Amino acid sequence: MSWMSNIWNSPKTSATGLLIAIVTIAGALSQQGVTLGSTGSGTVVTLVSSLATALLGLLAKDPGGESSSPGSTARLGAWAMIALLLPLPLMGGCSGTTVAQGIVNWTPALQSAVATVDSTAALLAPADAPVFAAATTGFDAASALLVGQAKAYLANPSASILAQMQSQVVTFQQQVNAALLQAAKIVDSASQQHALAAIQAVGSIVSAILALVQSVSSKVAVAQMAAQSTIKLALVRPYLDEDKAAEMVAAHYGEPLRLGQIQVAQAEQNAAQSGF
Fold first, then answer.
1. Are 270 and 214 in contact (CB under 8 A)?
2. What's the rounded mean pLDDT across residues 201-210?
3. SS3 letters for 237-264?
4. Among 20-29, 93-102, 207-216, 254-263, the least confident range
5. 241 pLDDT exceeds 70?
6. What is the widest separation between alpha-carbon atoms in the chain?
7. What is the distance between the alpha carbons of residues 1 and 186, in angstroms, rounded to a whole number?
8. pTM
9. Closest CA to 81 of 23, 137, 26
10. Mean pLDDT (whole number) for 135-157
11. What is the average per-residue pLDDT within 141-150?
């Protein structure tokens, strides 16, 4: 009966363990397309996972609870927060509307990053500016189209508009990847640094949006998206700055940097495993 005494003596730890198990199982069920029925605009699996995630968040922030050392309480909160982040790239529970709103919420940061790209050519050596401009010339149109599709989905959710967003986010991702490879060829070190930093900022946001869209896409749709991706993540990884990407994600979602780093790493791993 020692397990019962453990539960009695450490209720917070036991509750956290149970919630972690619920979130993990829900993530696995969603990944396999198991919904257990619908509720509201989502599924039963999504609802259970969301409730468990919310409770994990409360436990992670709760300074009180069972009698334990400050170190163990901090570790408990850390594990709770990590646990609620890990399933995010795997969950198919988000609705298309939630994802579309997420894209719209990224719009100011995306527009700012694209504007920075537009002004970066002036900072480059004269011989490098035309190369950079040619590599990034489609960013304005790509971002406007993607945001427009997200707003259209919010106004009239449909499978056809979701398919357009799936295609467009991959198209944009490929433009960014191609631009990174072109910028890496710039010989002047200062010009190369400016060029890569500007493109990286756009790419970080596009990657975050790709993860959002991927979360509501079927396995067939994800496979089709991955087939569009001819410049794979592995080719551009040497030119990516994960720390800067994590800073952008953490700032956007108002979370600690460490959690942003976990999200970025997990999203990249999931994208690579999916064939991007």
1. yes
2. 95
3. HHHCCHHHHHHHHHHHHCCCHHHHHHHH
4. 20-29
5. yes
6. 76
7. 68
8. 0.69
9. 23
10. 96
11. 97
Other Cβ atoms within 10 Å of 252 Cβ, number: 17
Tokens of 224: 């089709």
The model's confidence at residue 201, banded by pLDDT at 50, 70 and 90, is very high
Q: How many CB atoms lie within 10 A of CB 202?
A: 25
Tokens of 204: 């970080």
Average pLDDT, integer, range 220-232: 95
Give the Cα-Cα-Cα angle 94, 99, 104 (nearest 5 degrees). 155
Q: Provide the 10 A C-beta neighbour count for residue 70.
A: 8
* C-alpha span between 169 and 155 (Å, rounded): 19
Q: What is the DSSP string of 206-236?
A: HHHHHHHHHHTS-HHHHHHHHHH--S-HHHH
pLDDT (0 to 100) of residue 258: 86
Question: 255 exposed, middle or buried (CB, 10 Å; 0-12, 13-18, 19+)?
Answer: middle
Contact assessment for residue 56 and residue 87, using Cβ atoms and an 8 Å cutoff: no
User: CA 111 to CA 140: how far, in whole Å?
Assistant: 8
Domain residue ranges of the chain, discontinuous segments joined by +: 2-90, 96-273
User: For tokens 């890990």, what's the residue?
Assistant: 86
